Amino acid sequence: MSLRFWRSWSIGLRMAFITMLPVVFLFTAFVWYSWYAHRAQVAEELSERGRILARALAETSEYNVISGNLTDLRLTINGLVQSDSSIYRVDVVDASGKRAVRVTSETAQDAEPHYYEAPIRKQVVWINLFTDNGTPHVSASSDARPPTLTTEIVGAVRVRMSPSNMLAKQGRRFRIELAMAALALVASGILAWVLARSLTLPLKEAIGALRAIRGGTYRVELPVTTGGEVGELQASIGEMSVALDQSTQDLENKVAERTRDLLASRNEALRADADKRKLIRKVNSIIEDERKSIAVEIHDELNASLIAVRLEAQSIGTLAAKVPPGPEMDDIRGKAQAITKLALDLYANGRRLVRRLRPEVLDMLGLHGAVEEMLRHYDSADCRFAFHSEGDFSRLGNELAISAYRIVQEALSNIMKHAHATAAEVTLVLDAANDVLRIEVEDNGQGFDPASSSEGIGIIGMRERVVALHGTIAVRSAPGRGTTLAIALPLSVVSAVS
Amino acid sequence: MKRLRALIAGWVLAAGAAAAPAPVPVSGYRFQIITGDESGLTLRIAEDLYKRLVPTFAAFRTELAQRRRMVYIAIGPDALRKAAAQHCDCVVISAFTASQVWRAVVDRLPPGRARSMTAVYAEPAPADQVRLATLLYRRPVRVAAILGPETGFLQPALLGQAEVLQAARDDDVDDVLARAKRSEVLLALPDSAIYNPENIRNILLSTYRRKQAVIGFSSDMVKVGALATTYSEIEDINAQVAEMAASFVASGELPEPQFPRYFHTAINEGVARSLDILVTNEARRFARARP
Fold first, then answer.
1. Is B205 on the interface with A (CB under 8 A)?
2. Taking the model in full, what pTM does it have?
3. CA distance A53 to chain B (A)
4. In a designed cystine with B257, which of A45, A268, A329, B119 is the match (CB 3.0 to 4.6 A)?
5. Is the minimum CB–CB distance between B97 and chain A shorter than 8 Å?
6. In chain B, % of residues over pLDDT 90
7. Is residue A163 within 8 Å of A42, Cβ to Cβ?
């Protein structure tokens, strides 16, 4: 068993142990000492009484032994023996050891040998008997000290004591003491239990309160039921509970306030984001409208004028052919041809500009055809483009189609500018079931690290455009492993916004 | 002690001068105190006695060729024997010696020498003792006295006073006491053949058991269990010795040995109660004071 076995004990058990240990030691010591003391007392008392009795009888027996008058002595000893149960037997012997008187108790038992003997001495009275001893004979009282003389032994008194009666008496006393000590021990035990309980109960309540606090119930009721350290502990836990509850309440109030603030800020941000998206979409719409208007203007006005200029220049050349040749005529014809050519170039530029401003092919071929046309335009020997599409794009809204077209246009432009790719693939999937248009552009270019690289204007523009349409955009890329751009645009949002 | 030695030495020198044979007639007396030991008791006796004797003998002037008769005062038995051994024209007054011892010493001396000796016995006078017993019992009582072979000379003194029981040397004292069972009082007299330290207690017990009172011969006996006694102080005896010496000096006649004249009484009240004796003040005050 470990010497520290008590470490696992509860405080109540420790308290009871601390209280009871000295009491038990005391009880044990008391019981042993009491038993020993009673035994010793019997032995001492018996010894003392035996010696005194033997000596007293020896003193009183002198006359009877010397005078031979033993009847009185026998009566005296018999009365003594029969009245004192601790005397077992008294023998009086003469100087030769011959027994003169023997009296044995009728009740006492000779349980243990307790034998005492006292010699019967002839008692000498040392007074001046006016003998011829040399000293003056003075009849008045004198203080002269007598000489020391050896007295004659005329017999002996032998007393045998019986301890049984005394042992019985001491046994009764011991049992009473034992009962009282046991009673005191029990009382001490009860007191220890009460004391331990008076300590453990408040502690258990305190522990329960602390557990409740640990469980989140900060407001606990822990009345101060006792004084001292335990009472201070109860009071401290109660004060701590109140303080914790107050602190928690304050914290919760602050959290609620902050949450309200955050919600307000979030709502504000959401509103701002919605406004932003709305604004972006509006701006995009306006831009597209403006582009369309400009394209219409260029197509209808400028290009028509350029056609008229070409026709006029061709007319000037035709007229000049009819005029007799001359250097001036040749110069006019050459100028007419230069104007024609310049008008054609301007017309072609106008046409390109119109196409960029307003991909009319989108109106004519739809998104699928427009993207296919765009790929053919970008496709070259340096970078080969592939196209894959799924779904029916005919019912796609104009705004969504233009946005998707511009996104693909920007993605291809980025491939051409930065990817140094040799192959790229564009996938359009119109998932009617999920009401979403998926665009995926993948190349085998040099790629980049999305975590460390800052986004370029192109991607930012695409992200803004996708966000405005409530879509999602994902860019997956790694250095040397190409780039994949995945975009999902909801089909229903555009019309709602529009 | 030096003082005692000087005192005795001075007296002895004077005695030596007196012992020288000279036909000069006696014209005065001188005295010498002889002691047997140098104990404090003896010194006290001697000093008191000296003071009492000086006035008696101071009248005799010391002159050359003047012959003065020596008076020896012997204190105790040993001193008595020393004094008895002196071969001189002197007288001896013995004091503090019991009559039995005195008799034993004197009986061995020549009659002429014995006549020059007298004594004041140490033990109380039997008549006073019997009177004391009568006072204690407040009536005439039967008194018994045991006399041994050496104290038979006291029988005349006890005549009419007490029943005398003679005890032989080998008689058991218990048997002798048994013979005195009719007496109410045992008058104890100093007799080493009857009373000795070994049996005095038994004698006291035996008489007590027989409801007999013992009139002792000293205060110490009363202390150990005797009923009562008359006793004489040292000064009482010395006063009587001085009176005896003065009588001799005045008359030239040496008085007969005598019992103490001056005495007091000692009573053991406890023994008296045990014997159912009511002690009266008369008994307590029974005494004869010295002048």
1. yes
2. 0.52
3. 21
4. B119
5. yes
6. 60
7. yes
Contacts 24+ apart (CB under 8 A), B107-115: B109/B84, B113/B84, B115/B254
Q: Rounded CA gap, B281 and A460, in Å?
A: 154
Q: How many CB atoms lie within 10 A of CB A272?
A: 12
pLDDT tens readout for residues A49-71: 889 999 999 988 887 887 777 88
Contacting residues of B for A140, CB less than 8 Å apart: 218-219, 231-234, 264
- Confidence band of A498 (pLDDT split at 50, 70, 90): very low
B276: tokens are 């159912």
- Per-residue confidence band for B1, with pLDDT thresholds at 50, 70 and 90: very low
A127 touches chain B (CB under 8 A): yes
pLDDT of residue B139: 93
Range of A122's domain? 5-126+152-187
A125: chain B residues, CB-CB within 8 Å: 197, 200-201, 204, 224-225
Of residues B97, B62, B130, B117, the one with CA closest to residue B244: B117
Q: How confident is the model at residue B16 (pLDDT cuts 50, 70, 90)?
A: very low
B residues 133-192 lying closer than 8 A (beta carbon) to A: 174, 190, 192
Q: Does residue A67 sit at the B interface (CB-CB below 8 Å)?
A: yes
What's the CATH number of domain B2-121+234-251, 2.40.240, 3.30.450, 3.40.50, 3.30.1490?
A: 3.40.50
In CATH, the number for domain B126-230+264-284 is 3.40.50.2300
- Chain B residue nearest residue A136, CA to CA: B76
Nearest CA in chain B to A135: B76
pLDDT score recorded for residue A143? 67
